[in-house]
From TrEMBL:
Upper lineage: Bacteria, Pseudomonadati, Rhodothermota, Rhodothermia, Rhodothermales
Stretches for region Disordered: 1-43
Record-annotated 3-keto-alpha-glucoside-1,2-lyase/3-keto-2-hydroxy-glucal hydratase domain positions: 51-238
Protein name per Swiss-Prot or TrEMBL: 3-keto-alpha-glucoside-1,2-lyase/3-keto-2-hydroxy-glucal hydratase domain-containing protein
Molecular function per GO: hydrolase activity
Organism: Rubrivirga marina
Length: 344
């Protein structure tokens, strides 16, 4: 078994001081008109409905019942009561959330309708903030991965309109001994505009300075109370699985040891019934397949004198020999189809 090797990571975003007001602001992109709310797919876990329902899916950070209120089709922050977290935990996720800032034109900077979407028990935050005509530090504006990455574009809508985030998040991976193997990654789409492009997070997000990773699993989704009655609706989550690995022993072929004569009789150019041709050629001490429409030579594994298998592709050749022992036809089966060819 291969030995896991810990990967280094930076305790803070490279290049920029955190919360630097001189860090460039993202360019403006006008989002297209989009119909909200967006209906969840069939496998989604709906934590807040399109009408703001679902308060029972949440609890206070203390574990008490969630102290926020449902009002006029939205789940609304009750300022001063603290954040809420989902009762259910999640790992790698796609999260859709719609939010609307509180009407607070008298406030500015980080004080204007500030909230946040938290992942993995509060470790990673996508900032929620009214930044319409409201300058703040770039890594703390709406759709920022807080304190780390400003959005690539400013796609915010006016404060009297609903906003939407689609967040794609992959947890960090740790060895059995707790060493970091792979940093967390995040992609964010704001109002239909890609604003965070598979960013590699240097650590957990927090005010003033990102913290180094500590081993953890998944966790609950959180919404922040930062003193403003920000509104939420239509928050749904899809669990994203790991890609399925092949079973043990998959694609391990028992290669036959062909004689030079058995190899040489297979070498040649074969005309396909559909047009075009295959070429079987010597590749070192073995055999390879080439085709005129693709570059490179594909290694072939001989299973017997009349059965050949591509080494890295689920493609197989069955060879028919005539009475004299010469090749009369090859049949190449791949992807559910069979292509027949004869020697030229």
């Amino acid at each position: 078994m291969a030995t896991e090797t810990a990967r280094p990571h930076a305790p803070a975003p490279p290049g920029w001081l955190q919360h630097d007001m001189d860090r460039p602001q993202p360019p403006r992109v006008e989002p297209a008109d989009g119909a909200l709310p967006v209906a969840p797919p069939s496998d989604a876990v709906v934590l807040i409905g399109p009408d703001g329902s679902g308060l029972g899916n949440w609890e206070a950070d203390s574990g008490d019942p969630a102290p926020w209120r449902v009002e006029d089709g939205a789940l609304v922050v009750e300022p001063g009561t603290g954040g809420i977290r989902s009762k259910e935990s999640f790992g790698d996720v796609q999260v859709h959330i719609e939010w609307k800032p509180a009407a607070e034109p008298e406030k500015d900077g980080q004080n204007r309708s500030n909230s946040g979407l938290f992942l993995a028990d509060g470790r990673y935050e996508v900032q929620i903030l009214d930044v319409w005509d409201n300058r703040t530090y770039a890594d703390g504006r709406a759709a920022a991965i807080y304190g780390q990455f400003p959005p690539l574009f400013d796609a915010t809508r006016p404060p009297d309109e609903w906003q939407a985030y689609d967040v794609y998040f992959r947890l960090p991976r740790f060895s059995d001994g707790g060493e970091l193997l792979e940093e967390a990654r995040m992609t964010v789409v704001h109002n239909g505009v890609l604003v965070q492009n598979n960013e590699v997070l240097p650590g957990t997000t927090i005010w003033l300075e990102s913290l180094p990773y500590e081993p953890h699993d998944g966790g609950r989704i959180g919404l922040q109370d930062h003193g403003s009655p920000t509104r939420f609706r239509n928050l749904w989550v899809r669990r994203i699985p790991e890609r399925e690995a092949p079973p043990a022993g998959y694609a391990r072929f028992d290669a036959a040891d062909l004689t030079d004569a058995e190899r040489d009789r297979l070498v040649g150019r074969y005309a396909r019934e559909e047009g075009g041709f295959f070429v079987i050629e010597r590749l070192g001490d073995g055999l390879g397949l080439s085709m005129p429409w693709r570059s490179g030579v594909l290694p072939i594994v001989p299973l017997s004198p009349t059965e050949l298998q591509l080494q890295n592709t689920a493609g197989r050749f069955d060879v028919t020999l005539d009475a004299a022992g010469a090749v009369s036809e090859i049949a190449f089966t791949m992807g559910g189809a069979t292509y027949r060819a004869t020697p030229e």
